[in-house]
Specification:
Blueprint (H helix, E strand, L loop, with lengths): L2 H6 L1 H9 L5 E2 H5 L6 H13 L3 E6 L2 E6 L5 H27 L1
Antiparallel strand pairs: 1-3, 2-3
Length: about 100
């Protein structure tokens, strides 16, 4: 699955935000959603397979945290998209000011 498709899903984006700067157990993550634990678990599995989250075992719990370094290539894609969009906007503004 493409990285952009991965984060296009709102629940996965929310999971990444929740574990951006702290570790949370799957049950703690799931408590923030109105979907089943199984659905959250599937989202976590997809994020884990993409290396967007790290998992650490602590007793019988699995603790999840965003792997910010793994998101680096995705950040480059998004920055490039924004740069192109902002350049187009600047050209549109310049043209409209000249008229």
């Amino acid at each position: 699955m493409d990285a952009l498709q991965l984060i296009a899903e709102p629940n996965r984006r929310m999971i990444l935000r929740l574990v951006w700067d702290r570790e949370l157990a799957a049950s703690e993550i799931a408590s923030n959603f109105d979907v089943t634990f199984g659905a959250v678990s599937q989202h976590l599995a997809i994020l884990r397979e993409a290396d967007f989250v790290k998992v650490r075992r602590h007793g019988n719990k699995r603790l999840y945290r965003t792997d910010i370094a793994a998101l680096g290539p995705l950040a480059a894609i998004l920055e490039d998209m924004w740069r192109t969009t902002l350049q187009s906007l600047a050209i549109t503004i310049e043209v409209s000011e000249d008229q």
